[in-house]
């Protein structure tokens, strides 16, 4: 999600403008020099586009020197934002405090929108035209307080935003796509047969959806699912079904085509390298993941405890995967599959509201700051969720984070928001 930063001297009306942009009628908090203000970013929408607005005021609360403070704001904005809004008080005009910031904004490649705020009437609007001299292009005369000109400003913001990603997040309605994968003989066909009684012919597809002929629609837990590449599981050509290379290509293809993967493992055998490779494929493809330990009926009671420990160790890189112990043969826990799939998909599509994310993050970094490195500790400025399926987060920081601290943030993020059954991607954008 693109980021729009609002920059300007104290008292030019940045908070009022942010409130206007996010369309919230809340008590207007005007910026007072030296007072730390909430720097939580807000979600905004206009004409069907979403973006994040960050009020850069309050980022340098202890700066004695106003010119330095606004320059620092501008710098942070340039580094973290896709679009910068530079706010000037139209009644005051530009001051030399503004000029330093303007110079740095002009040097940056970022689009800057110049706003002449407090343009409450046409007399002031005429005066606002003199702000052309700042060299930031046409000033947008607005009254953040009364709403004058804010529609034009929002249109200008949308024009300046980077092009929307082509990914369509609203997936078409239809059955969810599941890949049932695992090395030969783990029991894929046996598990599929469990559901086959309820299986529908592929031609009898759900209205408005196309099902690949190699897929089948299967009823699991009272819901129709699209099992991808089930043809591969059905055609039992015995040992002649192809080389391991071919099988692995087919597995990768099924995972790619699916939203959630069920990786079947054989509980009566140790987890093999091939099992691990399949798990890696799912994680790298960014798909939701349910691990089903099949043939659980072969595991005797006193081995279970040790087996669980062993499994924990083998799967420590993916502690978030949903695990099931089942038996395709006896039917044990097979009814747990559908709820596990639903849970994993729900996590996969979770979107954490920006304000909530940053409230949590602020508390986290306050309680456990990044360790000091060479006399300084990198700071996390704020975070946004860049996408879903799987959830992807971007942390804006003052410097690169230590790998250990980044893992800590991910672990805490999962503790707070769940994401059970789904990978989560975290990337760090340090200001350079
Ligand atoms: P696939 O190659 O993954 O499709 O595996 P199959 O479904 O063909 O199963 C391989 C072998 O494991 C067959 O002999 C099955 O009868 C057996 N099998 C599958 N599931 C179970 C299970 O839950 N318990 C036991 N004991 N055997 C199983």
TrEMBL record:
Keyword terms: GTP-binding, Nucleotide-binding, Repeat, Ribosome biogenesis
PROSITE patterns xref list: G_ENGA
Gene3D superfamilies, A to Z: 3.30.300.20, P-loop containing nucleotide triphosphate hydrolases
Domain of life where this protein originates: Bacteria
InterPro entries: AAA+_ATPase, G_ENGA, GTP-bd, GTPase_Der, KH_dom-like, KH_dom-like_a/b, P-loop_NTPase, Small_GTP-bd
Positions that bind GTP 2: 182-189, 229-233, 294-297
Function of the molecule: GTPase that plays an essential role in the late steps of ribosome biogenesis.
Family: Belongs to the TRAFAC class TrmE-Era-EngA-EngB-Septin-like GTPase superfamily. EngA (Der) GTPase family.
Name the UniProt record assigns to this protein: GTPase Der
